[in-house]
Amino acid sequence: MKRIRAIIVDDEPLARERIRTLLREESDMEIAAECGDGRKAVAAIRRHAPDLVFLDVQMPELDGFGVLEAVGAERVPVVIFVTAYDKYALRAFDVHALDYLLKPFDRERFHRAIDRARAQVRGQRDAADRRILALLNEVRGAPKRLERLVVKSAGRVFFLRTDEIDWIESAGNYVKLHVGREAHLVRETMSALEAQLDPGMFVRIHRSTIVNLARIRELQPMFHGDYVVLLRDATELTLSRNYRDRLQKLLGRPI
After folding, report:
1. What is the pLDDT of residues 23-39, one digit of tens each?
2. Are residues 35 and 129 in the same domain?
3. By the 8 A CB rule, do 167 and 178 touch?
4. Domain span at 22
């Protein structure tokens, strides 16, 4: 039997590892490529022409829907969408009968998705193509996540891309944005800013701290369920046990 060639697309290394590990348990599956962002995914799909794509919905710059639009829904292979907790996306997938994996997913849920993907690869593609086109038509009108902030500092006004932010801390009626060695104050509350940020990129780890997931290097256990969150620049933050579930959902595994 011909093997099914798959591409894994997710900007979270741990999420890619989880899919890779489970996929290797399937004797008729082979991994053609792995991609950590949407632009590389578009190039990989065009190059490898896979049968199946595991496609992360929430990625910086070019998200999963942007990947589909760039490739062209008519040429997209069978898709299993992967998401953390985008309620809009889940509703859209259900409406259009498209399969998705909600992080964190277990082995049983993964295998159910694989079984449905096999059926589509084996000859039920027309209906799936129509569903993807319908989904894209719907999500084009979906609300966009905050991509940049206006920052006033030392008499100047400039735009700061949200994906440049390492972490955010509460400062009364302000938030302090940490970008490398610089810090900028913006008049906004933590809750209001959190609601505008991409939940696949930023996660709240404490009542006064939001962190860019891509900047996390290591988690070190403390007492009573808390953790030290060590960033790539050696900054140490605290993961409160009350916010641990949020991080687990994004990582796709328990901590």
Report:
1. 999 989 999 999 999 99
2. yes
3. yes
4. 4-139
